[in-house]
Each structure stands twice: as structure tokens, then as C-alpha cells.
Amino acid sequence: MKLICWNVRGLGMPRTVRRLQHMLRDINSSVVFLIETKLRSAQIAQIRRRCGFINGIDVDAVGRSGGLSIGWRNNCDVSLRSYSQRHIDVLINDDADGKQWRCTRFYGAHEEQHRAAAWNLLRQINDTPETPWLIIGDFNEIAFLNEKQGGLTRSDRQMREFRRVLSDCEVEDIGYKGRWYTWEKGRFESNNIRERLDRGVANSPWLNLFPRYVLNHLSHSFSDHCPLLLNTQDGEHSNKTWHFRFKATWLLEDSCEPEVQKLWATSVGSTPEKLRQVGVGLENWFWKLKMARKVTVKGLKEQLTQLCEQNPIDDILAEITDVKLNLNFEMEKEELYWEQRSRVNWLRNGDKNTTFFHRFASQQQKKNKVESLIDENGDSIDTNESLLNLATRYFTDLFHSDGVSSPAPILEGVEPCITNSMNENLDREFTKDEVLKALKVMSPLKASGEDGLGAVFYQRF
User: Fold this and answer.
1) Helix (H) or strand (E) holding 93
2) DSSP 8-state code for residue 415
3) Burial profile 141-175: b = 16 or more Cβ within 10 angstroms, e = fewer
4) Which of 367, 401, 425 is the last residue in one of the domains?
5) C-alpha to C-alpha distance for 294 and 315, rounded to whole angstroms
6) pLDDT of 377
7) H or E stretch including 100?
8) Name one GO molecular function term (predicted).
9) Of 179, 199, 231, at which residue does a domain stop?
10) Residue pLDDT, tens place only, 59-77
11) Which terminal CB of the chain, N or C, has fewer other CB atoms within 10 Å?
């Protein structure tokens, strides 16, 4: 199971929501826990569902601070134990491996005067010591001085109180992979502060239940907290079939127009044949572009991780900002791809915050797949060969005719409505201007024709 925990520092901006969607789509986690949503529960529920987590529990923000949300997919059985402004405590039954364990999402108090109440909350819910228990979240505190760099020295008393509550609850730090800190503030060396405020802690039964777990500190391009990715087991991956189709994202590439010009100049034959050759060439170009995109995004994330692990001098902090901007730009290209998949103009002219945007895009492939059919005998069939044979028989019978001696009796009741003048206009050859005019008024991102080259291709080239 994969679990994401992140202090997002507010989800009121559409750009932040899009970044969250991109990350969740890339990781494909089963459970997500969001801290500091700064939204009402109804608002965060909409965002959670838009990200693909139909099931969930949401806690209102208080004014402009706080707000919690946990979402899970259908392959998880999650039941609520308790919740507050500081925590959501659930019991997870993982269908993938049949394991049951307890998970508490925690948000520690930012103000020192409220820390004692937050620690006592953990002590109060520590009522099932035999149950495997994981606590994960933003504790807003460090355990030792080496978990902080820059700024004022943390009070030893505060750190001692934090370590004491972990001891009282009989949980221990589960460690991490990635950069050492999870929170950062300040873009210049003189005011830069880094701390490890977010972590996971667990009791012995949980550690015994998941001996091969991994907790990663992920890189990101927004929020001052980094996401935590917990993986309790190896995931399974499935291969997806890809078919050629000209994608509007390619127009953002400097090499797109020269590539089209080169392919058109080297193609031979009739216009449809030349377009087919252009499509084949663009298909190969796309795969190279896609591989390069993966390498670019992966490289930017790795570069960001390496930079964040270095001493925060001004040059390094400036480079971090530059890498984040480049990473955001690559994600904008990915977002345009999802717009085209949705086949709707909801994101046009910058209005990108729609409720069912990703739902429509993700369901497009599902709508194009036939899972099963009912045959002539009322039996359900679902194998590929049986589906193909049944569909072939059905449409063969549908479009088969035994013939009629004369259609005259059928046509007697049909009144003519097409005049000779209208018929002449309909039979006229299309002119170049008419075709160009029709192409210009077509929606650029609607479904393409047989050649895979949509209206946006012809409008541009």
C-alpha cells in the first residue's frame, strides 16, 4: 500500500490543486492525508474527489488555519475511530495483503502554548497497544537539535516533551529516505531555516507487520513542507496500450514545427498518404519526446533533491528557485495533455479549476473499453475472442439485407423536400476556401479523424 501525507499549506489556489493532482496521479497512492487545507470540509471534499479519492473524511479549517482530510480508494477498507482539529484516527483493512492496522494522521500545534494539549491528545488515543499503530503527519516539533538548521535554537524543554510523548505512546521514529528536512523557510542564506517537522512513528506490532516499509521525503515545487510517501509493500504495475494521436502539448515544443515541416517535405504520394507518413513520423518523434520528458522531470526532481541537501547559500537557493520554475513548466505541459484527453474546452483561457476535469479525462479510456457483452442466449461473455466473434456476428446481421423487389411502396409516403437547386449545391465539389473555413471554426481539441491529426494540427500548420 502507498500512503501520501502532506502539509499542503492551503488548497485555495487552482495552481496548487493542479500540482496536487499531478503528484497523486504520478504516485497512484491508495490513501492520501492532507494537512492545513485551510478550507471548509465541503470544499476539500470536492478537491479530494477530483483527485480520485471518492471515499474520505474531512475536517473543517478554523478561520484561515488548519483543516484535515483523508481520502482512500475502493481497494481499501477504512473505518473511522475518532477525529478532531488535530487528528484523524482510522483502522485500515488492506484488501491487497489482508492486513489490519491503525493509522493516525496528526497535526501538531504550531503555538508553544498549545503543544501540551496536542501531546495529551496522543496519550488519550493510545488505547490499543496490541494493535499495529502508525502515527504520521506534521508534528510541528523536532526531537533533537540536529533536526534543525538556521534560525533560533530550539528549547531543550520542547524537544524533551516531544520525545516523552513518543515514549509514553510506545512508538519510535521509523526513519526516512531522501533529504533530511521536511520544512524550509527563507530564500536567502541569511534567513534560511530547515527543520524536520514531518515524520512517521510506529509501535513494535506495526514494525513487525511491515518489515520492508519505506518512508520517502519527496521533492516538490510548492508548499514549504515536503510530502511523505509511505510504501508498505511492492506495488504492481500494468502496461497500457498507446495509440497515435497528435497532442496539443507538442505545440509547446520548439522542435514540433520543424519536425512537421521535415516530415511533410520528405513524404511522397497523395495528400492522404503524405498525412499518414507525417503521422507515423510524429508517432516516433512522440516516443522520443515522451522518454525525454520523463528523463527531464526525473532529472529536475533529482536535481531539486540534491540542491535541497546542500548548504543553503544564496547561489544554491537561487538555483532551487530556478529548478522549481522549470519543474512547474514541465507540469504545465502535462496538464495540457490531460485537457486534450478530456475532449472538452473547460480549461480554455486559463480557467483550469473544474470539478470533473480529471474524472472525465481518466474515464475516457474506460468508456472506450468493452468489458463484457450479453449474447443471443442471454449469457455474459468476457473473453477477447468471444467478444470479437459476437460483435462481428451482430453487425454482420445488422447490416445484412435479404433484398426487396421494389422500394416504390415504401417511398410513396415520403414527400420530396430537396429541390433541384439544393441538389446541385449539395453535389458541388468542395472548394479550398470552404474546407479552410470549416477547419478554422472547429474546436481544436475535439476528437481527431482516422489520421489522428485533429483540427489543432491543421489550424496551426
Assistant:
1) strand 87-94
2) P
3) bbbeeebbbbeeebeeeebeebeebbeebebeebe
4) 367
5) 27
6) 83
7) strand 99-107
8) catalytic activity
9) 231
10) 999 988 899 999 998 878 8
11) C
Residues contacting 183, CB < 8 A, separation 6+: 7, 194, 195, 196, 197, 198, 224, 225, 226
Q: Give the tens place of pLDDT for each residue, 229-281.
A: 999 874 433 333 445 677 777 777 778 889 999 999 998 888 888 888 888 78
User: In sequence order, what are the residues at sequence separation of 6 or more whose Cβ sits closer than 8 angstroms to the Cβ of residue 93?
Assistant: 76, 77, 78, 79, 99, 100
Lowest-confidence segment of 95-109, 129-143, 332-346, 446-460 by average pLDDT? 332-346
Q: Which of 88, 85, 34 is nearest to 61 (CA)?
A: 85
Q: At residue 366, what is the residue type?
A: K
Confidence check: pLDDT of 158 > 90:
yes
- Give SS3 for 380: strand
What is the residue whose three cell numbers read 491503525? 102
DSSP 27: H
From the CA atom positions of the chain, what is the Rg in Å? 29
Q: What is the mean pLDDT of residues 176-194?
A: 88
Identify the DSSP state of 377.
T
Same domain, 297 and 182: no
Provide the domain limits for residue 84.
2-231
d(CA 109, CA 120): 12
Is-contact 453 275, C-beta < 8 A?
A: yes
Task: Supply 26's cell numbers.
Answer: 504520478
Please state the rounded mean pLDDT for residues 376-388.
Answer: 81
Domain count, the chain: 3
| β-strand pairing of 99-107 with 133-138 | parallel
Q: CB–CB of 171/135 below 8 Å?
A: yes
3-state secondary structure of 81: strand
**Packing angle of the helix pair 314-342, 271-308 (nearest 10 deg):** 150
Q: Is 133 helix (H, G, I), strand (E, B) or coil?
A: strand
DSSP string, 431-449: PHHHHHHHHHHS-TTSPP-
**82 and 216 fall within a common domain:** yes
Helix axes 14-27, 41-50, angle to 10 degrees: 50
Cα gap 453→244, rounded to integer Å = 9
Please tell me whether residue 301 adopts helix, strand or coil conformation.
helix
In sequence order, the β-bridge partners of residue 35 are 7, 68
